[in-house]
Amino acid sequence: MRLLAALIGLAFCSSTVALLANGCSSLSTCQQCTGGACGNACTWCASTNACVQYLFNLCPLTSQVASAYNCPWSVSSSLEYNATLASNDAMNFLCAGNEESADAVQIALSKEYSEVEVLGLYTVPCMNSSVWSLFGAATSSSHCGAYVVIVNSTSTIAVVFTDNTSTFELVTKLSNIFAVPAFVNVTGVTGTVYDLFANPLVSLLKAGLATDIQTAMTDYPDYNLLVVGYSIGGSLASIASALIVTTMKPDSFSGSVSVYTLGQPRTGTAAYAEFHDSVAPATFRIISGLDPVPMLPTTLFVTNPPFHHRFEVWYNSTTSDSEYTMFHMAEDPSGRASALFGNITDHAYYFGRNVDTCRL
């Protein structure tokens, strides 16, 4: 399909720009190059900052940008990634989420922070899609969890999403190209997201999570809001953060909103990804080593492929002292996608801790 579009684009570009060789090269920005000025005939080469012909170019595949949305962004100082917050606070909140009651979560977090108040802990079934039920797939026994905590000592409100789905089940189901979860609309969200993530999030919000979020933001309007999620919980955190900004945030709230996810699968369409970037730009998708889950569901062989939102932060290993690279494209071919293979065990280990079993 892209090849046919490129051939049509070449003909269009040559007729309008007159000289085919100069058609793409005359476009000086990534947005111009990929935005349809020459149909689908051009591709932006990020390594040389030049527009080249899609069919005939010397640009490495890891540097080619085909979508205007995927053009590299510059990052302002207000969007800087906080590695300490990720490895310390985000991990602490996720490890505390492995407890079985709100009281136990509060006791756990009190070991690390002073003046902690957990408003509630909610769990709902997850890892179930309408598509899988049609194919006769067994109903999953996994659960998604969420809680809100106010940390007065750091002036932070944290909304934390977890799930206990086994990595094997997650990878097996999300890798099935014949039973990709269904896209659904969520009120307050532009674009569509997978029902696999939307349904448990809506259930959690109705169970009391929405009330807790609004109560915390109303009572502490000058605190900073941190939304954290792991695995499926990362996708829930993604959608929830967009809803918080667009439909739940009280007018009096003046704090910042940031989102840190670990091992987040692709959550929705490119339209959703672009919407998420516009309402929650301080979002960081952390990937550990060769974690395969962020590469799922697949973008291949589907008519409306999913697309990640920004910003990818890729750590080169699962250890606590691993180095990272932050990418300014939503789906950067030189990021995690450049590694052809995955390691299923890397999904569990972030910053040297097993997210599924860690305790404080």
TrEMBL record:
InterPro entries: AB_hydrolase_fold, Fungal_lipase-type. Residues 1-18 form the signal peptide. Keywords: Signal. Residues 159-299 form the Fungal lipase-type domain. GO terms for biological process: lipid metabolic process. PANTHER family: PROTEIN CBG11750-RELATED (PTHR45908). This is Lipase_3 domain-containing protein. It comes from Panagrellus redivivus.
